[in-house]
Specification:
Elements (H helix, E strand, L loop, with lengths): L1 H31 L7 E3 L4 E4 L5 E8 L4 E4 L3 E3 L5 E8 L13 E2 L27 E9 L16 H12 L4 E6 L8 H4 L4 H9 L2 E5 L12 H7 L4 E2 L3 E3 L10 E6 L2 E9 L8 H4 L2 E3 L2 H17 L5 E7 L19 E4 L17 E4 L5 E6 L4 E5 L5 E10 L5 E9 H4 L8 H10 L11 E5 L5 H20 L3 E2 L2 E2 L5 E4 L12 E4 H7 L6 E7 H9 L5 E4 L11 E7 H4 L7 E5 L6 H10 L6
Parallel strand pairs: 8-9, 9-10, 10-11, 14-16, 16-18, 17-19, 18-20, 26-30
Antiparallel strand pairs: 1-2, 2-5, 3-4, 3-6, 6-7, 8-21, 12-15, 13-14, 19-20, 21-22, 23-27, 24-25, 26-29, 28-30, 28-31
Length: about 600
């Protein structure tokens, strides 16, 4: 009997414990399976807004603690002093309705802390009425070629510097300035110091990056190292290897941030390794085609997913040609957008399919705006300080959407007469050229009695090559060989802007711009067959010859005077015998000719 009593007592004691487990566990399950409480924010205008709750079929709200009301919307207009609370009603069998949100009172003019929302993507937060747009202005310079000083053919950078600094002082937009390559080589003021003057100017006006161009290699990769240390911005070239490794003087990309928007800039040099003198291209490699596409895709993905970049800009030292500029009135800067459905041979449009948002280009010195088949804009601003690419981007920080308004600025804007010269430009110049009496822009070398065309100039240089080579080596023993005949002078001679010399006074700076390349003069040996094929019967080279093709014996060795760019081009099969090691180049031979009275009459 006693044993039976204990069993009954145990059963009665177990019943409340069992009920607690059953009902308690069920209560915990219900709490766990409730829909989340709507997150409410009340705007300055009294609009209560809450996010859509997944699984909710409608909402119940209460005003001033009164009756419950149904709504399928996610917003409600409140009056001043009105309190508001809302809960989500479940349409899912396994979920219960949410709890009511904590009551909030709208006080006119009082804005509760909130994350901006823009469900209609109009660029304005629906809670507080503030703009959620960040206005970015990208400016891209390409192929400036050291055109720093004012000249008769183009403006320099004194007004442009003022223009840029005025932009930075404007609080409305956030500016980003970048370069798409070929910044240093081409003028006496920059080339004579291997681009240091230009790099200091780029620091002054706050460049964010510079993509390497082929002419950055005109003095060899060794020059890039000290300039990269001088620069307060990175050099970019994702596809360059030197000796099989990525060089230390450049990187794949950089990130700039403006008003909370992160912009990744990827730089690449185009398929232009062959334009670099063979003297300096050994060991260099530029990935192109599919290999370059893979590199850019991988880097763009990394910038978005790991670095959190909102926009990706591609700065490419390569570009299209043959596009119509569409500028009918140069002062208006109206430039039609070209249809980019045609294929590019320099750019893989697959990159525009979600990888790249905006492209700035260079190298071809063209002036265009092209929209490719994915709607991505490509801009190139000409060359040698004739234009600047601008893309104004409105970025919605809530939706991630953006719009682009592209323009090519002309010198009528950034070098206008109304702009004052920035004093830094002259101060920087004088730090490299302190002797005003020996200024290459003002010191007169001589005079020309008439205009001298590009053809006249390069033909004269070929004659001067031959004459200087004879004076240096003819009749002398060089490397154990007596040079008893030199039959040709010349090479791959081309002029650059302004391409000609006007009649009147001639200055060294003009010759430097026309003949900017630092190619050493060499004595070369060449077989008769190659002499005929590569020079005497070719239109690619300008030369002065003392022998005709019919006089040449194929198996005989001949001696010629050329330059290192021509001699290092392997298809010419020229063997260098000797060179003039001092810094005497084509322009210097022409300068001596003019000093001596040549072309004066």
């Amino acid at each position: 009997m006693k044993k039976y009593f204990y069993r009954v007592a145990a059963i009665f004691l177990a019943i409340p414990i069992l009920c607690m487990c059953l009902f308690g566990c069920n209560e915990e399950k219900q709490e766990k399976d409730r829909l989340p409480v709507p997150e409410v924010a009340i705007g300055y205008d009294g609009l209560a807004v809450w996010g859509q709750v997944e699984g909710a079929i409608y909402y119940i709200y209460v005003l001033d603690g009164g009756e419950e009301h149904l709504t399928a919307e996610c917003s409600l207009q409140l009056s001043d002093g009105q309190s508001f609370s809302v809960k989500a009603v479940s349409g899912l069998e396994d979920y219960a309705d949410s709890e009511f949100s904590v009551p909030q009172v709208y006080k006119m003019g009082d804005i509760t802390p909130h994350d901006h929302v823009d469900p209609n993507a109009d660029g304005t937060c629906d809670i507080c009425g503030e703009s959620v747009l960040v206005e970015l202005s990208f400016y891209a310079v390409n192929d400036l070629h050291g055109k720093y000083k004012d000249s008769s053919s183009q403006p320099g950078l004194d007004e442009f510097t003022t223009y840029l600094k005025q932009l930075y002082a404007d609080p409305v937009r956030e500016e980003i300035l970048l370069s798409s390559g070929d910044m240093w080589q081409g003028s006496v003021e920059s080339s004579s110091n291997k681009g240091q003057l230009m790099t200091k100017w780029m620091n002054e006006v706050n460049f964010s990056s510079m993509t390497l161009g082929n002419h950055e290699y005109d003095w060899g990769a060794a020059v890039l190292q000290p300039n990269s240390k001088l620069a307060e911005f990175p050099f970019l070239a994702i596809n360059v290897t030197d000796g099989g490794a990525a060089p230390s003087y450049c990187k794949a990309s950089t990130i700039v941030e403006r008003a909370g928007v992160k912009v990744g800039i990827i730089g690449a040099i185009g398929d232009c390794l062959s334009s670099i003198s063979g003297e300096f291209s050994g060991g260099l490699s530029f990935a192109t085609g599919d290999a370059l596409t893979a590199l850019v895709k991988r880097e763009a993905t990394r910038l978005r997913e790991e670095e959190g970049c909102d926009l990706i800009v591609y700065s490419l030292h390569d570009g299209g040609s043959g596009y119509s500029s569409g500028i009918s009135e140069v002062t208006s800067e109206k430039l039609s957008v070209q249809d980019g459905n045609s294929s590019y041979d320099y750019y893989d449009t697959a990159l525009s399919d979600g990888y790249i948002d905006l492209v700035f280009e260079g190298h071809t010195h063209q002036k265009y705006i092209v929209k490719d088949r994915f709607g991505v804009y490509h801009l190139q601003g000409g060359g040698e300080n004739s234009g600047v690419s601008r893309a104004e981007v409105s970025y919605n920080t809530v939706t991630g959407d953006y719009t682009v308004s592209p323009t090519i600025l002309t010198t009528y804007t950034y070098a206008a007469n109304s702009l004052e010269d920035d004093p830094f430009v002259e101060e920087n110049y004088r730090s490299f050229f302190p002797d005003a009496e020996d200024d290459p822009y003002t010191k007169v070398l001589g005079n020309s009695s008439a205009r001298r065309s590009s053809d006249t100039i390069v033909q004269k240089v070929a004659e001067l090559y031959l004459a200087r080579g004879k004076a240096e080596w003819l009749g002398k023993t060089v490397g154990g060989v007596t040079i008893d005949s030199i039959v040709l002078g010349g090479g791959y001679l081309n002029t650059r802007k302004p391409y000609e010399l006007s009649a009147g006074s001639i200055h060294y700076a003009e010759l430097y711009s026309i003949l900017p390349f630092d190619n050493h003069i060499v004595l070369g040996a060449i077989s008769g067959s190659n002499l005929k094929r590569r020079f005497l019967q070719s239109s690619s080279y300008v030369f002065s010859a003392e022998i005709s093709a019919s006089q040449v014996q194929d198996s005989k060795t001949y001696y010629i005077i050329t330059d290192t760019y021509t001699s290092f081009y392997r298809w010419n099969n020229v063997t260098e015998i000797a060179r003039i090691e001092e810094d005497i180049y084509a322009r210097d031979l022409l300068a001596d000719f003019i000093r001596g009275g040549g072309w004066a009459s």
